[in-house]
Amino acid sequence: MTAPRAIWQGIEPVPHQRVYFANHSSNGDFVLLWTVLPAPLRRKTRPVAALDYWLKSPMRAFIGREVFNAVLIDRRPEARAEDPVTQMVTALDQGASLIIFPEGQRNSSDAQLLPFKSGLFHLAKTRPEVDLVPVWIANLNKVMPKGEVIPLPLICTVTFGAPLHLAADEAKDAFLARASQALLALQPHLQGDA
Amino acid sequence: MTSPHLLWLLAGVGAILVLASIIGEILRQRRSPTGDNPVIENLNARITSWWVMVIMLGLAFIAGKPGVILLFALCSFAALREFLTLTTHNRADHWSLLACFFLILPLQYYFLLIDWYGLYSIFVPVYAFLLLPVASALRGSTTDFLIRVSETQWALMICVYCASHVPALLYLQIPGFEGRNVILIAYLIFVVQLSDVMQYVWGKLIGRTKVAPNLSPSKTWEGLFGGALTASAVGTALWWMTPFSPLEAAAMCLLITTMGFFGGLVMSAIKRDRGVKDWGHLIVGHGGFIDRLDSVIFAAPIFFHVTRYFWSAT
Questions:
Q1: Which of A116, A121, B109, B118 could be bridged to A102 by S-S, CB 3.0 to 4.6 A?
Q2: Which one of A36, A106, A149, A152 makes the best mutation probe of the B interface by having the most chain B beta carbons within 10 Å?
Q3: Three-state SS annotation for chain A
Q4: Does B178 lie in the same domain as B290?
Q5: Domain limits at B262?
Q6: Which of B82, B91, B282 has the CB atom closest to A145's CB atom?
Q7: Do B98 and A139 touch (CB under 8 A)?
Q8: Do B305 and B186 lie in a common domain?
Q9: Any idea what the CATH number is for the domain that residue A118 is in?
Q10: A14 touches chain B (CB under 8 A)
Q11: How many domains are there within chain A?
């Protein structure tokens, strides 16, 4: 209904193991990203999602685990049994590609992007050979603002950028800043009339 | 619903498309055998999309009034989606925007279906105009309020109200023309779109002087006059299938092709302001629904009301 449109700007949709990292403005984010991936890639791609949200009700747990095959991580350091980075690395080692939202929560503020959590850096460090692909999802926060139930049929675009890798001696903050910049640079209105 | 005249017109359009497809294929083989000439590739994509659009319209005509109304309701929906994607709104407008899509649009076409002229001719400019801002105001956000409500109203007027005047032509009661109203729709769309196509062709062939260089690099005076005159000449030659005399048909054609041109110009200004080249991407080669319909949207209400005033019994 939102006629999502994929723009492959820095990379081609080929079956290469990847970590897609995207801005997070709505619950539909990963579904949208998922739908614009070609089917063979889609089957191998698992979203990384918050356990505290997705295990809240049996319905959500079923959708999260069975339909989307999500890697559920616990956002609460004090309560968790498993380290999220270890979980993600395990999934990568099983051959999956991942969708992650490094902001760690839905962004309903006026800021374009919240500061990234460090998980992306740890992934890049542990598995340096995997492509880290920035993905900007535009307009979905307007389609379904936080707290609304009925989606508004507006056109969304999903823009895939050139992959990133951790440089040899790049520090955590520098890498996260670079990743964040790469993501922001994909915003449609910054590209003139492309 | 179908009449021999309509079949003639559709057959004529079919013949033009066959010819265009052949020319497109010859151009491709001569100039762009590897598919690397973007103009020729775009031309062929446009011709393919024309086939789809003409077939859809033909099927709607066969299905009768409900079919035509449903087709234009769907076009309105797609156009509104493209338009509202580019307008200013914030979270407080969620409900009023939902109302545009799921309340106002279906109601406008429903009033049309039951032929309630007194309501569908004022529904958007009066009721939606006054009530929609209330829905936004109740949510309490005042930032850019006037901009938000005006742009939403503009989207509704263009994409729903004006567009709905195309199927409204089915309900005009013209003495001596009963049962043939579908010709009016086919005639309007044919003349206006032919003008668009011929403006493109003339512009590509002899276009030099740009009408509004800031707005659109592809609109030239040569293209405008060539396109409008060619389409009007063809439209005048088809006067026998309309309620108009040859002279009236010529005047009517000039009127709607001019309005069509203005439509393209105004919609280009909006696109340019919002920094996009096309409204959408769903009609391959053309862009979005609004890119294809802008001229018809501007011509339809004028064509409807002029025809109604001078020829209709009611």
A1: A116
A2: A152
A3: CCCCEEEECCCCCCCCCEEEEECCCCCCHHHHHHHHCCHHHHHCEEEEEEHHHHCCCHHHHHHHHHHCCCEEECCCCCCCCCCHHHHHHHHHHCCCEEEECCCCCCCCCCCCCCCCCCHHHHHHHHCCCCEEEEEEEECHHHHCCCCCCCCCCCCCEEEECCCECCCCCCCHHHHHHHHHHHHHCCCHHHCCCC
A4: yes
A5: 174-314
A6: B91
A7: no
A8: yes
A9: 3.40.1130.10
A10: no
A11: 1
Best mutation target, A154, A158, A159, to test chain B (most B CBs within 10 A):
A154
Is residue B169 included in any domain, yes or no? no
Tens of pLDDT, residues A141-194:
778 777 777 888 888 888 888 888 888 788 888 888 888 888 888 877 543 333
Query: What pLDDT, on a 0 to 100 scale, did the predictor assign at position B277?
Result: 78
**For residue B243, pLDDT beyond 50:** yes
How close is the nearest chain B Cα to the Cα of A104, in Å?
22
Judgement on whether residues B143 and B185 belong to the same structural domain of the protein: no
Q: Within this chain, do residues B205 and B303 fall inside the same structural domain, yes or no?
A: yes
In a domain? residue B70: yes
- Chain A environment of B76 (Cβ under 8 Å): none
Domain that holds residue A81: 5-191
Read off the pLDDT of each residue in A61-87 and give the average, rounded to a whole number: 77
Co-location of B135 and B229 in the same domain: no
Contact B282 A3 (CB under 8 A): yes
If one counts the domains in chain B, the total is 3
Question: Per-residue pLDDT tens for A101-127?
Answer: 888 777 777 777 888 888 888 888 888
pLDDT at A193: 34
Tell me the C-alpha to C-alpha distance, in Å, between residue B239 and each of B183, B243, B250, B287. Answer: 11, 8, 8, 32
Whether residues B132 and B160 share a domain: the answer is yes
B272 pLDDT tier (thresholds 50, 70, 90):
confident
pLDDT at B17: 92
**Residue A177 C-alpha, separation from nearest chain B C-alpha, in angstroms:** 28
The answer to whether residue B165 neighbours chain A at the CB level (below 8 Å) is: no
Q: Does B98 touch chain A (CB under 8 A)?
A: yes
- Average pLDDT, stretch B48-77? 92
Residue B155 lies in a domain: yes
- CB contacts of B276 in chain A (<8 Å) are 193
Q: Do A148 and B94 touch (CB under 8 A)?
A: yes
Q: How far is A135 from chain B (nearest CA, A)?
A: 20
